[in-house]
Write the structure tokens for this entry.
Amino acid sequence: MLKNRLIFTLLYNNGSYILSRNFRVQTVGNLDWLKEYYNFNAIAFSIDELVVLNVERGKKNNENFSKHLIQLSKNCFLPISAGGGIHSLEDAYKLLNSGADKLVVNTPIIEQPNLVSLLAKTFGSQCVIASIDCKKDQDNYYVYTKNGIKNTGLIMEEVLKKAEKIGAGEIYLTSIDRDGTGQGYDIDLIKRASNLTKLPIIASGGVGKYEHFVDCMKNGYATATATANIYNFIVDGLIKARQYIQKQGIELARWDYNLQNFNNYFKNH
């Protein structure tokens, strides 16, 4: 049986990391700030993967993002998925050569489907994650691109099936309505998606407490849950979240870590 995964998402914007609420962003700190509050060796014992998304508005600076990814991935032995601004095979190679293990695509699903197919053919479907951002309108979930700015007019079901057809190997599904609210995942959205595909689904948007991870995982609709809420899970919050999830009978990979040693690290840094 496939184990569930706990994923931490970092949102990058022009050299800094941000918080997002309904895709409206607020800067919280740069890489030095991140390293002051996070020890990636310790995080490796609390999450299964790291997702880093370039959410710069307008034309993204892929060169700077790649350089940043190199610095971020030093001494970080977690699998890293990176995306934002992938519009060519060259862009993809740049991210993979900068420390990424997987690629996350969003707007290209709609505007450059042939590129997504090329990425899957070149690197394998397991390397391509389709990011689908949704807003609910009455009974439908409409898909937005361009960092949640452009309404495609397409519903989630159409885009998910398209992403699957053009070669994506995984779905990163975000509720824009729940993003940053702390109100919990949109379970109805995740359930609808899981009924359409056998691809692994990463649920994103809305987690504010440990129980929200369990609410999402326990029904088997998502095989992974992601959080981008830096403040809620700062210092040892991710380790405690993992412990809580496991105590509820949810299958996660078990890491051999010492929480006391982890706490001592932060007392001395």
Q: What stands out?
A: Residues 236 and 263 are 7 Å apart (CA to CA). DSSP finds eleven helices and twelve strands in the chain. The two ends are 40 Å apart (CA to CA). The chain has one domain: 5-267.
